[in-house]
UniProtKB/TrEMBL annotation:
Pfam families: DNA_pol3_delta_C. GO terms for biological process: DNA-templated DNA replication. Keywords: DNA replication, DNA-directed DNA polymerase, Nucleotidyltransferase, Transferase. It comes from marine sediment metagenome. This is DNA-directed DNA polymerase. Its EC number is 2.7.7.7. Belongs to the DNA polymerase HolA subunit family. GO terms for molecular function: DNA binding; DNA-directed DNA polymerase activity. It catalyses: DNA(n) + a 2'-deoxyribonucleoside 5'-triphosphate = DNA(n+1) + diphosphate. Residues 1-113 form the DNA polymerase III delta subunit-like C-terminal domain. SUPFAM superfamilies: post-AAA+ oligomerization domain-like. GO terms for cellular component: DNA polymerase III complex.
Length: 117
């Protein structure tokens, strides 16, 4: 939410807090981001097909923070979501092959994403 609102500092602080609060974040953060963006991608496809948001929420299993999810979805195109998923895949590959560290890679990814807003 902070990224799409153009609040880069807040987004980076949230990420750093995630890493500080839970050691396992280093191993789960890319997957968590990918899960969120895959849900956004699926929901955006359905909305673009004319399906109402309540039905989309049920199909995509969006149970909490529906309003925030759909507000975020309105600010982003299907193409952008696809690009973010590609960037996440590249980030995941770079982390797994030892080219970068998770914290650094995720901060860079957030900066790239925020540059669009």
């Amino acid at each position: 939410d902070a990224v799409t609102a153009g609040k880069v500092g807040i987004a980076i602080n949230h990420l750093r807090k995630m890493f500080a609060d839970d050691r396992s974040t280093e191993f789960t953060v890319v997957g968590a981001f990918a899960f969120h963006f895959r849900r956004m991608f699926g929901a955006k496809v359905l909305i673009d097909k004319g399906i109402n948001s309540n039905k989309v929420a049920g199909i995509m299993r969006i149970w909490s923070q529906k309003d925030a999810f759909f507000a975020q979805l309105k600010k982003i195109s299907l193409t952008q979501i696809g690009e973010y998923l590609q960037q996440l895949a590249a980030t995941d590959y770079a982390i797994k092959t030892g080219r970068t560290k998770t914290k650094v890679a995720m901060e860079q990814l957030i900066l790239k994403m925020a540059a669009r807003y």
